[in-house]
Amino acid sequence: MEPETWEKLGLSRNESRVYIALVKLGPASVSEIAKKTNVHRVNIYDVLESLLKKGLVSSVIKVNKKIFHPANPEALKNLLKKREEELKNAERELSELSNIFKGGVKKDVQVFKGRLGLKTVLKDALASKTEILDYGSGIFPGFYPEYFNIWESHRIKNRIRMRIVTSRSFKGKVPRKKLQIIKFLDIEFKNLSSTFIYDDKIAIFMWVEDPIAILMENKELADSYRNYFQVLWKTAKI
């Protein structure tokens, strides 16, 4: 029984390890759980508190010691139902985006090619009056290193906040910067594009040999992309 199985339902790795250990141990103290899982005792308390909120653990006081009990594994079905609902919401958002796109935003679309084209669109994002939402590939730092740090320094100087959602395969590879939060989707995927959402704009960067950037300006479309980003944000984990 691997923790990765339950991570797909929204449990963190430590939450999975602690819950599985409790099912095997039965009622147990924090020290017993820590010994079984090799999770540091300090972290065990936070993990158990999270599991309590998710209804996967309960506790009682016995002889001045708190003892934790695992909930019936059937309770995990609630997490599965929640994940299914999130996926259905994502499908609805995608359908809305497709309908809006088919409705036509042609006059609001610009296409830029080459590294200078990417730079033009990236510079446009630095004038944003809103936070920048970014989902997709975490390739920007490695693809365009000579401009990445310059761009980030200007973003921070301009006090533009940024939230990023990418694949867990980029964990540890995307530099963490000020005014920025990165979360990771618990899936592996190969993606050569990134999507920025800011102001009433959507910028799609295609990190290929002859790079392309597409800039669209349309409030309805930008709001729909924001809604879709929020679905991903709720699903992703730090």
Q: Can you give me a brief rundown of this structure?
A:
The chain is an alpha+beta fold and 238 residues long. Helix content is 47%, strand content 22%.
The CATH class assignment of the largest domain is Alpha Beta
CATH architecture of the largest domain: 2-Layer Sandwich
Please work out how many helical segments DSSP would assign: 9
How many domain regions?
Answer: 2
Helix amount? 40-55%
Radius of gyration: 22 Å
Beta content: 15-25%
Measure the end-to-end span.
24 Å
Largest sheet: 7 strands, mixed
| Overall average residue pLDDT | 86
* Broad structural category: alpha+beta
CATH fold label of the largest domain: Endonuclease, Chain A
**What is the subunit arrangement here?**
single chain
Shape: elongated
Poorly predicted runs are none
Identify the CATH homologous superfamily of the largest domain: Endonuclease Chain A
Strand order of the largest sheet: 3-9-8-7-4-5-6
Write down the secondary-structure element order.
HHHHEEHEHEHHEEEEEH
Total beta strand runs: 9
